[in-house]
Predict the 3D structure of the following.
Amino acid sequence: MSLLAPPPQVRFEAVSYRYPQQAEPTLQGVDWRVEEGEFVVVAGPSGSGKSTLLRCLNGLVPHFSGGRFGGTALVAGRDTRRNGPRSLSRLVGFVFQDPEAQLVTSRVEDELAFGMEQLGVAPLTMRKRVEEVLDLLGIAALRGRDVATLSGGERQRVAVAAALSLQPSILALDEPTSQLDPWGAEDVLSALTRLNEDLGLTVVLAEHRLERVVAHADRLRFLPAGNGAAVEGRPRETLAAMDVALTPPLIRLARRIGWQPLPLTIKEGRACVRLDPRHPASPPTDRLSPVGRPVVVVQDVTVGYGSRAVLEHLNLDAGPGELVALMGRNGSGKTTVLRSVMGLHRPKTGVITACGRDLSRVDTAELARDVGYVPQQPGTLLFAETLREELAFTLKHHGGRGKDLETVLALLGLADAAERHPRDLSGGERERAALAAVLVGAPRVLLLDEPTRGMDAARKAALGTILHDLCAEGATVLMATHDVELVAAVATRVVLLGDGRVVADGSPREVLSGSLTFATQINKLYGGQWLTVEDVVTGLERGND
């Protein structure tokens, strides 16, 4: 007996979409198929349309966004023109790039139940599902917590759990690991893989950090900038065809030194290393941290929320020209350190000084003339009607002292977005817009909280160059991040936090090498003190001299 192939679960035919007040379409003539039970990863540079493509799945585009929509988008046989987000929410679970945008209650357990209450799920079933997703995402300890007290990564996991509790047949996730520490990211991806393989859940996931997800994917779809033709196929095929600068470090190395077939995992990469007769010479030495009087000093500081201590007797300093990366699991205190240095949290004990001033005696608005802060939610900094006006406001606040507005926009690749409303930008563009609004004021101290969220590899490399140049000019940078690849490339020091205390403080090679979780892909591949693709390529060249 012959069986007819079932129709695809998602079918787009000639789909085009242009946002209101935008001259150019974000999507143009998109043809796309997703079969039931597939795990599909969507990649591409910032602004290439990844988020828009995903929003077509649940009807947010065009029902919520407005604009002009063309072509046909069918999800489980339903035309998204005739079925809006409310109807499609029973089929499609959605996790936004910004988890704060979808958390609506004040308590974690209530958040997980909220969507089910709206759909009339029976109380017994609701309680059972809440328990299941709490265990699945490893967040049972958060069940009674106030959402406002959660770290960015914890909120992201709660958002994923809330979407899973509805038991959709399709789960669309926009950068679901962007704020997660390596443990949290692995927990989320393991849960998604298990649901995909065991229950047939269709997963469509947009992601910049491909090293985390390509091994889990059935197909990889790459969207180039400017509505170019998409590249789609098995992950190995697509990674071989896409811009090498946007691929993970393992793939960049493999393509540069000619490994075939391309390894997708560290296990496959180690097999390539064993079979390759070439061996790199010793890795380069560390960049020396500048020596100077500290610009930021955190001395014996304790900070807490209510009775819960987040930082306990913390000691930390940073000097001119230093780029200090704050790392650690979600909830370890990284964001609280930055907010305390910005004067947004008053310590219960200890003293914080910045630019020679005791923060307990300085108004935050006055401090902002010398200290710039880009939070995890960059949208909180953006309020003007256009990006150009946003930067002009900063310059006005600084009495005209700062950098040239046009130069900063060009430096961050935002010249074409100068007249757009900041809220209309993509997640990665908003991150750069917030950074531009701070950099134009030429701060002596720059505080960055997860600055690469929503940024593609090329923009991340450009950010690294900008930070390197700022430090060369004498600025001090404190950056909270889980992005080990960026840290290995640009940081002069790494401070690893655990439960509000300093666990390790040293150079990137000292702290990242040999770590089970905070090692780079190249370090996992070669061990020792190898951290970056450039380390290995240079070492191979020296080894062959």
Notes: The first strand starts at residue 10 and ends at 18. The mean pLDDT is 90. The first helix runs from residue 50 to 55. The radius of gyration is 24 Å.
